[in-house]
From TrEMBL:
Presence of the UniProt keyword Membrane in the record: no
Cofactor dependence: Zn(2+)
Residues of the FPG-type domain: 240-274
Cofactor binding note: Binds 1 zinc ion per subunit.
A Gene Ontology biological process term: base-excision repair
The EC number(s) this enzyme carries: 3.2.2.23, 4.2.99.18
Chain's role: Involved in base excision repair of DNA damaged by oxidation or by mutagenic agents. Acts as DNA glycosylase that recognizes and removes damaged bases. Has a preference for oxidized purines, such as 7,8-dihydro-8-oxoguanine (8-oxoG). Has AP (apurinic/apyrimidinic) lyase activity and introduces nicks in the DNA strand. Cleaves the DNA backbone by beta-delta elimination to generate a single-strand break at the site of the removed base with both 3'- and 5'-phosphates.
Pfam families: Fapy_DNA_glyco, H2TH, zf-FPG_IleRS
Domain of life: Bacteria
UniProt cross-references to InterPro entries, sorted A to Z: FPG_cat, FPG_Glyclase, FPG_N, H2TH_FPG, Ribosomal_uS13-like_H2TH, Znf_DNA_glyclase/AP_lyase, Znf_FPG/IleRS
GO-annotated molecular function: 8-oxo-7,8-dihydroguanine DNA N-glycosylase activity; class I DNA-(apurinic or apyrimidinic site) endonuclease activity; damaged DNA binding; double-stranded DNA binding; zinc ion binding
Protein name: Formamidopyrimidine-DNA glycosylase
Catalytic residues, chain numbering: P2 (schiff-base intermediate with dna), E3 (proton donor), K60 (proton donor), R264 (proton donor)
Amino acid sequence: MPELPEVETVKRTLKKLILNETIKDVRVSWPKIIKEPDDIDEFRLKLIGQTFHDIKRRGKFLVFLLDDYALISHLRMEGRYGIFSEDEEPDKHTHVRFILESNKELRYRDVRKFGTMHLFPKGEEYNHLPLIQLGVEPFSNEFTPERLYHLLNKTTRNIKATLLDQTYVVGLGNIYVDEALFRANIHPEVASNELNTNDVKKLHKSIVDTLEEAVNMGGSSIKTYVNGQGEMGMFQQTLYVYGRKGMECKVCGDEIVKNVVSGRGTHTCPSCQKVRNH
């Protein structure tokens, strides 16, 4: 699933491609992707004649800002956007087509069909699900070590589960949680409320640093992720633990192990991330 760095990269590339483009038609071949409104004709008619003015990101969501509406899009596992010529035949995995007056198309392609779109009057998008439930942005001024400590102190869940919870901190998924915890020398199974202030300061820094580095490298192309121009990310080449089961730790030389924590495959270094005894 694309995480914050990948969605941020898609946002940045799409802004170069579709701003000031006007929609002349919308075609939906898999209606279940459209969650709001639940009538596809209404979704289509509201968007015809609308112009793309900006694209924002909230957590793992893209927020397309048009004249009168905000289109909220979640890529889920394998969703991706691309710009195509109107004459180019769409493939079988293309489920939403925004046909532009310039005779180009913004196409949403999703092999697994898990992605979602919500359309709200502009200005109301943050008052409804899915955006209303989201937690603090890692790149915002509100995300401080003190704020993170306060959030973690409220729960006894293990730190991996808490960081994956988008109502606490947004944008972190399996890749970047594993990476941030490694950099902070924190085992993923430690209880969130057992981390002291020094632990949390290290974790805060590792979250921000990891995400910033990943954004600067265009995200991580682990399976199928590409940006809005079809380009792969490169951060996967610098990963410390994720996807490196059985390999040597780049810091200490011990063997990276993989187990299951909170139902998710989890990569750790046994030496750099020791289990704490109580």
